[in-house]
Design brief:
By secondary structure, the protein is α/β, with parallel strands linked by helices. It has helices at 22-37, 76-100, 114-121, 142-147, 179-182, 210-221, 225-228, 242-252, 265-271, 281-290, 306-315, 330-342, 345-356, 362-374, 400-403; strands at residues 14-17, 42-47, 62-66, 104-107, 130-135, 153-156, 170-172, 198-202, 231-236, 255-259, 274-277, 294-296, 320-322. The radius of gyration is 22 Å and the shape is elongated.
Length: 404
C-alpha cells in the first residue's frame, strides 16, 4: 500500500462531494480521515439536506452547502426545477473552487455530488482539478453515469458494475465503512447452539423500512414455540409505527428493542446472528466486513434497481438470501427463519461467505487511488477488470440448495 505523505502546503485541498443519507457520507468521512492522516487538507461540498457537519473529520474542515435537488423519479415540472437547482449549485461550486483551487474533487454519487463535480469541469482547463468518482453500488448511479464522462478515475465497490462507460479508468477499491464496523474485521462468527438466545437485527435504511414492521413481527410469531422463545429482536422502526410493532412483539412473547435510530450499530452487528434489511451499498459492505449472514429485501423503487445487483454479490457466494418485496410475506419469512434457526450450520456457512468478500482497507485503497490520480497514473495498484454486464435473474424464493 502506498505510504507517500504529501506536503499539505504544496497544493490545494481535496474537495469531498457528498450529501444526503449516511450511505453516501460514511465512505466520504472514511476517505477524508485517511487523507487528513496523510497530510492533505480536505473541504466538504454538500447539500442542505445533509447540512453542516459538527462532528467528525469535516467539523474542522471548510464546508460549503450548495443548491441542488434530485431529478430521478420526479414528474416533469419537479425534474426541471431540480435540474435548474443543480445548475445553480454548479455555478456556486465553480465560483468557490476558482478561489479554493482544489487539487481534486471526489464525488460519492447522488445528486449532491453533481454541482461540485460539474462546477469543477466548468473551470478553465489550466485550473481544473482532478475529478474522481466513487460508485458504491453494483449499478452505476444516475448522477455518476452523467459525471463519468468527465472523470479522471472511477473507484468501484463491486467487481461487477453495470453501466460503466467503455474505456473508463476504473479501480476496484471496495466501499469504505465506518471505523467501528471495520474494527469487527476478523472477530469471527459463532452461531447459536440449540439452547442459546438467537439475536436478530432488523434495519431498514436511514429511517427504517415499513415493510419490516409489517412483516417481521408476524413471521416470528408463527415460529414453533421452542424457537420463538429463544429469539430476541433489535429492530429499526419508524416513530409512527413504534406502538403497533411493540404491541405485536409483546403479544407473541418476543423480547424486542425498538428505535427509529441506533447509534451503536457496530455492537449490534457484533451480537447479531442474522440481519434482515435492505441492500444499499454501505449496508452490504458492512455485512461483509462484519461477516454476518443476511436476508436482503432490495428497495423496489430504487432508480436503477441497484440494490438487487448489490444483494446478488452476497447471494452469489452463499452469504445472503434475496427476497423480492412482493414475496416478502409472513409465511415465506417464517419458513425461511425456521429453517435457519433449526440448522444453524447454514448461518455459519453464510457468515464465512460474507467475510470472504470483505475489503476492510477500502478507505486506504481509495486514498491510494486518489493519490495515483493526482500523480497522473491511470489505475492504481488495486486496478481490476470491472464487468458491465447485466445481473442475472433472481430466485425470489430462496432455498438452502440454491443459496448455500
Amino acid at each position: 500500500m502506498m505510504t507517500t505523505t504529501p506536503h499539505a502546503s504544496s497544493s490545494g485541498p481535496i474537495v469531498i462531494a457528498a450529501g444526503g443519507t449516511g450511505g453516501h457520507f460514511f465512505p466520504a468521512e472514511a476517505l477524508a480521515d485517511i487523507l487528513v492522516g496523510r497530510g492533505y487538507r480536505v473541504a466538504l461540498m454538500t447539500d442542505a439536506r445533509a447540512g453542516k457537519r459538527t462532528s467528525g473529520v469535516f467539523a474542522t474542515a471548510e464546508q460549503f452547502i450548495l443548491a441542488g435537488a434530485g431529478v430521478a423519479g420526479r414528474g416533469p415540472v419537479r425534474a426541471v426545477k431540480g435540474g435548474l437547482a443543480l445548475l445553480r449549485g454548479a455555478r456556486e461550486a465553480r465560483s468557490i473552487m476558482a478561489k479554493l483551487r482544489p487539487a481534486a474533487v471526489v464525488g460519492f454519487g447522488g445528486y449532491p455530488s453533481v454541482p461540485p463535480l460539474l462546477g469543477a469541469r466548468l473551470l478553465p482547463k489550466a485550473a481544473r482539478p482532478k475529478i474522481i468518482l466513487h460508485e458504491g453500488n453494483a449499478v452505476l448511479g444516475k448522477a455518476n453515469a452523467f459525471l463519468a464522462r468527465f472523470a479522471d478515475g472511477i473507484a468501484t465497490s463491486f467487481t461487477s458494475v453495470k453501466g460503466l462507460p467503455s474505456g473508463s479508468n476504473v479501480t476496484l477499491t471496495g466501499m469504505p465503512v465506518r471505523p467501528t464496523i471495520t474494527a469487527l474485521t476478523g472477530e469471527g462468527y459463532v452461531a447459536p447452539s440449540s439452547n442459546d438466545t438467537i439475536r436478530l437485527l432488523v434495519w431498514g435504511g436511514s429511517l427504517g423500512a415499513r415493510v419490516f414492521s409489517d412483516i417481521v413481527p408476524g413471521a416470528l410469531a408463527m415460529l414453533p414455540l421452542p424457537l420463538r422463545e429463544r429469539v430476541t429482536v433489535t429492530q429499526q422502526v419508524r416513530a409512527e409505527d413504534m406502538e403497533r410493532v411493540r404491541t405485536a412483539y409483546e403479544a407473541a412473547g418476543i423480547a424486542a428493542e425498538l428505535a427509529p435510530f441506533f447509534s451503536n450499530v457496530a455492537e449490534l452487528m457484533r451480537q447479531a446472528h442474522l440481519v434482515i434489511g435492505r441492500a444499499g451499498g454501505s449496508s452490504v459492505a458492512e455485512l461483509e466486513v462484519a461477516g454476518r449472514p443476511s436476508i436482503l429485501v432490495p428497495l423496489p423503487v430504487a432508480a436503477s434497481d441497484e440494490q438487487t445487483a448489490n444483494a446478488m454479490a452476497l447471494q452469489g457466494v452463499g452469504a445472503a438470501w434475496i427476497v423480492r418485496q412482493p414475496d416478502f410475506t409472513e409465511d415465506a419469512l417464517s419458513a425461511l427463519l425456521a429453517m435457519m434457526f433449526t440448522d444453524t450450520g447454514i448461518l455459519t456457512a453464510a457468515a464465512s461467505a460474507a467475510a470472504s468478500l470483505a475489503r476492510p482497507d477500502a478507505a486506504a485503497r481509495l486514498a491510494d487511488m486518489v493519490e495515483a490520480t493526482l500523480r497522473g497514473q491511470t489505475g492504481g495498484s488495486y486496478s481490476s477488470p470491472v464487468s458491465a454486464t447485466p445481473a442475472s435473474p433472481l430466485n425470489t424464493a430462496p432455498t438452502v440448495e440454491s443459496k448455500l
